[in-house]
Amino acid sequence: MRIQSTVGGAAFVLAAVTLAAGGRAQTPSTATAATFFGDIRPILQAHCAICHSSGGPSPMPLVSYDDVLPWAQKIKETSLSRKMPIWHAARGYGAFTNDPTLTPYELQRIAAWADGTDSDRRGAGVTAGAVGAGSVSASPAEMVPGDASMWLPVRSGWITGWTFTPGDPLITSATFTSDDGSPIGVWVAGDSATRLPPGSAIRVMSPVHVEFRRRERTSYESSFTPRESSLRFSRLPPPTDPQLPATPVRRVHIERVACGGTIGPADASLIGVQPLLAAGASAQVTVERIAGAQPVLLGWFRGFDPNYPRIYWLDRPVDFVANARLTSDAPCELDLVLSSRR
Known about the structure:
Shape: globular
Radius of gyration: 22 Å
Oligomer: single chain
Strand content: 25-35%
């Protein structure tokens, strides 16, 4: 099982030219040398351009050499402190398919680039290609304006994933809920198309309630005229027998559980978790299974920002037994994404 969801964030710095006495440029040592075009631009394309591009949901573009120049030391600081990319799960505590965090090697390259010299100015000003958010083959696109909240008429039925393209760069997240109150999912700035495991789907009842979170505009970002946002659902392929409805093998649903509570049903598998914590709060969350099964550490979520309520898709599903419990070292509440046979 793989959930395909990509998250972006800022992670790039500038390697400035250091002049030796007499005004001659020194050549950096091969042990620490890092250049924008040889080292940093690939990191930028992989981790940052999805948000930090023209019209993207982050305040400044980090696409070209000149874009990054004014932010060199600030980006070094935020990347080494792991404030960027925005990701609340501590590295090494749990494994997630949509983890955007930088590797130790990438962090070392960033630090070397910021602190060292950069003799590779030949391509300065050349724009790196922005990384697109991907797409999902879906039924007709439903277009929504960038309001704080609205109801969206859609075709009821089973969906296998979604993609959301914000028309307003100040939108940090969008939450989708069925007409009957059942949660569908969430998009957070930097996410690309979300696809559920093969053979599984979520039931959607029309209309869908779409709730947006928006950040404040910064003093240094360019003005932008909002356009329509786009929400697309992908659906199950039609059955071979046209008389039969399209139904999934496994039903995906979301269950809200307070830490310390039991999880069910016993035959379900946990495939994703969405922490719902207070601003700045942290919690280390574990599933304790009865009958001798080893407890499973889901994650250690730190410094929570409610503007980015991401679903953390598990690298491997956690199978339950009867009376499994969700435990934590702090008060918390989570939305669990569960998959079970219909």
